[in-house]
Design a protein that fits this description.
This protein has about 300 residues and is of the alpha/beta class. It has a single domain, classed as Rossmann fold (3-Layer(aba) Sandwich). It has helices at about 15-25, 30-40, 55-65, 85, 120-125, 130-135, 170, 185-195, 210-220, 225-240, 250-265, 275-290, 290-305; strands at about 45-50, 70-75, 90-95, 100-105, 110-115, 135-140, 140-145, 150-155, 175-180. A hairpin with a 2-residue loop joins β6 (about 135-140) and β7 (about 140-145).
């Protein structure tokens, strides 16, 4: 058991609470998803949002980029999208007799990959190196991306016309997968009375900065994890692998980072089993089944079968 009486709170809640409060003015009734989104950014991961059209996926991505004070670009993924449309292209300069590289929209801090699974795998593969190593390679040259580079991808259910399933290698690069779902009746009534929240995004002001985010990210990873929590995480990994392929060691490392970020947002300098339990479905679901919706049920089954410390 963790002795919480001897641990002290972390003095970070004021700044992060401003970010969450602003996001809640745009996306009402989704506090858990908002906290997971911010925790994903602090853990240096990438975010996958899966749901039917019209549930606020793009709105969340735009509001998060603006609130964090980061430069962001949006790419609408379509069936005819090419890798060069994302990373950029080399164009011959007749004056210098050399090729000049024109940067694509991936050269940003926050990249909104809208409806990512409407593009074929060739276009999706343009993101693989960037998401893992925060760099891209074009024509034999390597170009660095910002340290806070963060991909927020939205995808529609694969049953919809023109949607492709994401390959496993790309799913594994998304630290967190969430579904927004439909709002409860009271929230939906409030939304209808208030009007389209997307119009408010242009009025949002940054309540953080790239420097703050880097500091929060570094501080969050100093959060303490006891041996009993490490044992718990390993037990979850082993349980996921029974009967076939399960979560990788990289997924385990990601679970540690995400759990630390969740504890940090909750103003604690130690990780509780509750933090791991909040992180696990969001991290494991899309990795286990390729879908957020079906994967959450599989992740919860694993959680319920492993005793909590």
């Amino acid at each position: 058991m963790i002795n919480t009486a001897q641990t002290l709170p972390v003095d970070n809640q004021g700044d992060i609470s401003l970010v969450l409060a602003q996001l809640e003015t745009i996306l009402m009734g989704k506090r858990e998803q908002l906290e997971l989104s911010v925790a994903c950014m602090l853990a240096k991961g990438h975010l996958l949002i899966e749901d039917v059209p019209g549930t606020g996926k793009t709105t969340l991505a735009q509001a998060l980029g603006v609130s964090m004070g980061l430069k962001w670009n949006r790419v609408q993924f379509t069936s005819d999208l090419l890798p060069a449309d994302i990373v950029g292209v080399s164009i011959f300069n007749s004056q210098t007799q050399a090729f000049d590289f024109r940067e694509g929209p991936i050269f940003t801090s926050v990249l909104l990959a809208d409806e990512i699974n409407r593009a074929p795998p060739k276009a999706q593969s343009a993101l693989l190196e960037a998401m893992e190593e925060r760099q891209i390679s074009v024509d034999g040259h390597t170009y660095d991306l910002p340290q806070e580079f963060f991909v927020i991808a939205t995808q529609n259910p694969v049953e919809q016309l023109g949607a492709y399933p994401l390959p496993e290698s790309q799913l594994d690069r998304f630290l967190v997968g969430i579904a927004l779902g439909y709002p409860d009746p009271a929230t939906e009534r409030a939304l209808m009375q208030a009007g389209d929240k997307r119009s408010l995004i242009s009025k949002l002001k940054p309540v953080a900065s790239a420097e703050q985010i880097e500091q929060w990210s570094a501080d969050s990873q100093q959060t303490h994890i006891s041996d009993s929590i490490y044992d718990y995480i390993q037990a979850l990994l082993l349980r996921s692998r029974e009967g076939g392929s399960g979560l990788s060691s990289r997924a385990g490392l990601s679970l540690v980072r995400l759990s630390k970020s969740i504890a940090y947002i909750d103003n604690r300098n130690h990780v509780l089993p509750d933090d791991v339990q909040r992180a696990f479905p969001a991290l494991a679901g899309h990795r286990l089944t390729g879908r957020v919706s079906t994967g959450n049920a599989a992740a919860m089954e694993i959680l319920n079968s492993v005793p909590s410390p």
